[in-house]
Amino acid sequence: MDHPARLDALRLRLAAERVECLLVTSLPNIFYLSGFTGSAGVLLVDEGRSILFTDGRYALQAAEEVHGSRVVILRSGALKAAARRLGRYRCAGFEASADCRTWRQLREQAGACRLRLLENVVEQLRLVKDDDELERIRRSVALNSRAFQQTVKRIRPGLREVEVAAELEYHMRLLGAERPAFETVVAGGPRSAMPHARASARRLGENEVVVLDHGAILSNYASDMTRTVHLGAASRRARALFRVVLEAQQRAVAAVRAGAACSAVDRAAREYISRRGLGRYFTHSTGHGLGIEVHEIPRLARRDKTRLPAGAVITIEPGIYIPGMGGFRIEDVVVVRERGAEVLTTTPRALLEF
Hints:
Creatine Amidinohydrolase, 2 domains
């Protein structure tokens, strides 16, 4: 990763915002700019330098991981030490992700320095992935798909949802994942009508739909995939509902290209589902950005007019959720290209029936 180039790109944005420095407190952003993966640290970036403040627990780790920034090891109080430096500037930026406690400490230590809230200034840099990032995501997606393929053949009535989730995460780890990207969703029967249902102790039943939504972190980058399976032969209605979701998903993928508005991609899926009389059952956005975090900017939502740049990585995941019956969702990871979408997820999208 070319961390000095990323820091230089950030400096150009800071100059455009007319701030002299940025205090970076978001850990994903600190990783993006410096390579540091520890759980405690603050990065201060100005026109001529970048300094990572952390404590002695991370001395060896920071020496190994950090590139393009100087490392300052403290006994404690990384934020306080970094905030004291702000007194050297007239105007300093801080991230919108900072909490109230962070803001209070900044205000106490910054002296006469004027503080400005900057929203998504680093996240905008992260939106377009370089070749190294794309390769990491590609490998994460492939690993996640293999974990699904090794787990799905063992799903059967009587298994608890948490057992299926544990099996998925076990295979992720065996294949080399550092951890799941988020809490694995396994939801059967009526529970599958909850888009973000957590895996529960409920046992899967005969002749019911099961939604599996899972992702892995590999080399610090995320994957995300949803597939729908049916235990037993699916009814005509279930197959028809699934076909609507599949067609909507493919229409949204076809709408992806550099320069397309996020709202247009969302509309491609949403209007088709609505024309089939099922619009009220599609209750979330069509997708989201993906990279270091499983949910990044942009959102592929009705009101998001963001134009997709080439090199962005997004998910496409329309769904239908009918209370009392169940849910159907298909999710793939795609790269935005000049003339369309490169779909990274290769796992078959067909409704699997066991």
